[in-house]
Amino acid sequence: MTKILTVKQIKALDEYTIQHEPIASIELMERACRAFTTWFTERFHALNKVGIVCGTGNNGGDGLGIARQLKAWGYPVKVWVVRGNMKESDDFKENFKRLAGYVVDLVNISSEADKGLFVECDVLIDAIFGSGLSRKPEGIYAQVIQCFNQATATKIAVDIPSGLMADQKSEEPIARVTYTLTFQLPKLAFLLPQSQQYIGEWTVLDIGLSKKFIKEVDTTNYLLTQKDIKRLIKPRSKFDHKGTFGHALLISGSFGKMGAAILSAKAALRSGVGLLTTHVPQCGYSIMQSSVPEAMAQVDDDDNRFTAYSNLESYNALGIGPGIGTHETSVKAFISVLKSFAKPVVIDADGLNILSAHSNKYEVVPPGSILTPHVKEFKRLVGEWSDDFERLEKQKELALQLRSVVLVKGAHSTVATPEGKLYFNGTGNPGMATGGTGDVLTGILTALLAQGYTAEDAARIGVYVHGFAGDLAASDKGMISLIASDLIEYLPAAFKLLSR
Ligand SMILES: NC(=O)C1=CN([C@@H]2O[C@H](COP(=O)(O)OP(=O)(O)OC[C@H]3O[C@@H](n4cnc5c(N)ncnc54)[C@H](O)[C@@H]3O)[C@@H](O)[C@H]2O)[C@@H](O)CC1
Ligand SMILES: [K+]
């Protein structure tokens, strides 16, 4: 897994590398600059006029080193150093010396002409603040960032856009860039929706910081990688039979919303469940039997909705919520089925809405379950939050209270565990913002729970494979035309690529 470290840990990682590799700090900076210019020269022709705006800390030092290297590559480079109250770091000073003569110092931006300072640049590099930012930029720093944002050049941030805090709430002004090239590990802020407007497309550059330190350092935040998911998916053996892969029950659908039931059932079957029973109202019986012949159908007493259930003993996992509605008879049956089913449950959609309105939600959810709210559903469950960092705290708190996994869906869906871990997902695309994709996820997760995966593992595999199927589908069909059924169509390819 890719660990997400705090700013303090990143600093310690730099220091550990300097001490134990060992490598001189200025050499490590040179390596960071080299990683940056390698990426840069592969993408931008040497005819581009490059502007580099530097602070006077180590991020600024990087900017100066990058300027020197790009000059050597033949790029026309102009460098500005913002002179405010920030101290000069030793490596900044050294790189300043090495670049002597090419620097324009900025002490003030007063005239209108100054505001158009960067107009001549085709590419602008932001090296004002890096991970050392400790408060909101003010004075000359704020002016330069505003000026930077007004320029029309392609913009690239060194390590992190200036003004953006890596692991806490930030305040404007913040540089808005097209690309962020970050060193060694992604920063927590990159994974949050509120930062997307600043960071653009981000790339991690390996600068050889200590692998040993990264392996040993404690963190609760991770970015899921394909390698992790491959390790988690259990291989099948010759003597396995359908009983090995569990029996799942899906309670979903109502009159007018049988599509949700079909999508979750098909997704469960494509996710390896041994046996699947779907509980449907009478109006959904023929629809389910003819659309999903592999699933058994258990029929409700009611024509149109979920109102009652029968013996639950044979099921290893339950998925409930897609399309069930919030009619009071369904609410009653929902609470009652949760109370009687002691094994893990996936709760989605209307299930979550019912839970939000229920006064005793902490008592009805069986421990080890998975809740899959999108942002609006999550707000209904826990109330408003002022920024995404607070949302993450609320998510961890709910997971702890319910002793279950809380999976908040969106770009970089996040999985919170009762132990306080956060896993961020990197698969998926905006094409998946279409009706029914959540129902597909419910089916996948229910199938994984039925196969004996823990809630934590099921959520990690499920969220990754769901996005991965979406990415495969989008690469063939494009994002605009993508529909939820496409995810099901591409699940086999996704699982195949993720299996050992
Ligand atoms: N050897 C290393 O430690 C390496 C560091 N690297 C670079 O170094 C950066 C971190 O360097 P620094 O820790 O010097 O951090 P910065 O370059 O972000 O500068 C922080 C400095 O600005 C001051 N400051 C913070 N907020 C301010 C504000 N709002 N207004 C005015 N001053 C403010 C701080 O007190 C500190 O002196 C990374 O982002 C990365 O770019 C890379 O060169 C890789 C190696
Ligand atoms: K920066």
UniProtKB/TrEMBL annotation:
<keyword id="KW-0511">Multifunctional enzyme</keyword>
<dbReference type="Pfam" id="PF03853">
    <property type="entry name" value="YjeF_N"/>
</dbReference>
<dbReference type="InterPro" id="IPR036652">
    <property type="entry name" value="YjeF_N_dom_sf"/>
</dbReference>
<dbReference type="InterPro" id="IPR029056">
    <property type="entry name" value="Ribokinase-like"/>
</dbReference>
<keyword id="KW-0413">Isomerase</keyword>
<feature type="binding site">
    <location>
        <position position="59"/>
    </location>
    <ligand>
        <name>K(+)</name>
    </ligand>
</feature>
<dbReference type="GO" id="GO:0052855">
    <property type="term" value="F:ADP-dependent NAD(P)H-hydrate dehydratase activity"/>
</dbReference>
<dbReference type="GO" id="GO:0046496">
    <property type="term" value="P:nicotinamide nucleotide metabolic process"/>
</dbReference>
<feature type="binding site">
    <location>
        <begin position="409"/>
        <end position="413"/>
    </location>
    <ligand>
        <name>AMP</name>
    </ligand>
</feature>
<feature type="binding site">
    <location>
        <begin position="58"/>
        <end position="62"/>
    </location>
    <ligand>
        <name>(6S)-NADPHX</name>
    </ligand>
</feature>
<keyword id="KW-0479">Metal-binding</keyword>
<keyword id="KW-0521">NADP</keyword>
<feature type="domain" description="YjeF C-terminal">
    <location>
        <begin position="225"/>
        <end position="498"/>
    </location>
</feature>
<feature type="binding site">
    <location>
        <position position="141"/>
    </location>
    <ligand>
        <name>(6S)-NADPHX</name>
    </ligand>
</feature>
<dbReference type="InterPro" id="IPR004443">
    <property type="entry name" value="YjeF_N_dom"/>
</dbReference>
<dbReference type="GO" id="GO:0005524">
    <property type="term" value="F:ATP binding"/>
</dbReference>
<feature type="binding site">
    <location>
        <position position="126"/>
    </location>
    <ligand>
        <name>K(+)</name>
    </ligand>
</feature>
<dbReference type="GO" id="GO:0052856">
    <property type="term" value="F:NAD(P)HX epimerase activity"/>
</dbReference>
<keyword id="KW-0630">Potassium</keyword>
<feature type="binding site">
    <location>
        <position position="438"/>
    </location>
    <ligand>
        <name>AMP</name>
    </ligand>
</feature>
<dbReference type="InterPro" id="IPR000631">
    <property type="entry name" value="CARKD"/>
</dbReference>
<feature type="binding site">
    <location>
        <position position="162"/>
    </location>
    <ligand>
        <name>K(+)</name>
    </ligand>
</feature>
<protein>
    <recommendedName>
        <fullName>Bifunctional NAD(P)H-hydrate repair enzyme</fullName>
        <ecNumber>4.2.1.136</ecNumber>
        <ecNumber>5.1.99.6</ecNumber>
    </recommendedName>
</protein>
<comment type="function">
    <text>Bifunctional enzyme that catalyzes the epimerization of the S- and R-forms of NAD(P)HX and the dehydration of the S-form of NAD(P)HX at the expense of ADP, which is converted to AMP. This allows the repair of both epimers of NAD(P)HX, a damaged form of NAD(P)H that is a result of enzymatic or heat-dependent hydration.</text>
</comment>
<feature type="binding site">
    <location>
        <position position="374"/>
    </location>
    <ligand>
        <name>(6S)-NADPHX</name>
    </ligand>
</feature>
<feature type="binding site">
    <location>
        <position position="260"/>
    </location>
    <ligand>
        <name>(6S)-NADPHX</name>
    </ligand>
</feature>
<comment type="similarity">
    <text>Belongs to the NnrE/AIBP family.</text>
</comment>
<dbReference type="GO" id="GO:0110051">
    <property type="term" value="P:metabolite repair"/>
</dbReference>
<feature type="binding site">
    <location>
        <position position="439"/>
    </location>
    <ligand>
        <name>(6S)-NADPHX</name>
    </ligand>
</feature>
<keyword id="KW-0067">ATP-binding</keyword>
<keyword id="KW-0547">Nucleotide-binding</keyword>
<comment type="function">
    <text>Catalyzes the dehydration of the S-form of NAD(P)HX at the expense of ADP, which is converted to AMP. Together with NAD(P)HX epimerase, which catalyzes the epimerization of the S- and R-forms, the enzyme allows the repair of both epimers of NAD(P)HX, a damaged form of NAD(P)H that is a result of enzymatic or heat-dependent hydration.</text>
</comment>
<feature type="binding site">
    <location>
        <position position="323"/>
    </location>
    <ligand>
        <name>(6S)-NADPHX</name>
    </ligand>
</feature>
<feature type="binding site">
    <location>
        <begin position="130"/>
        <end position="136"/>
    </location>
    <ligand>
        <name>(6S)-NADPHX</name>
    </ligand>
</feature>
<keyword id="KW-0520">NAD</keyword>
<feature type="binding site">
    <location>
        <position position="159"/>
    </location>
    <ligand>
        <name>(6S)-NADPHX</name>
    </ligand>
</feature>
<dbReference type="GO" id="GO:0046872">
    <property type="term" value="F:metal ion binding"/>
</dbReference>
<feature type="domain" description="YjeF N-terminal">
    <location>
        <begin position="10"/>
        <end position="215"/>
    </location>
</feature>
<comment type="similarity">
    <text>In the N-terminal section; belongs to the NnrE/AIBP family.</text>
</comment>
<dbReference type="InterPro" id="IPR030677">
    <property type="entry name" value="Nnr"/>
</dbReference>
<dbReference type="InterPro" id="IPR017953">
    <property type="entry name" value="Carbohydrate_kinase_pred_CS"/>
</dbReference>
<comment type="subunit">
    <text>Homotetramer.</text>
</comment>
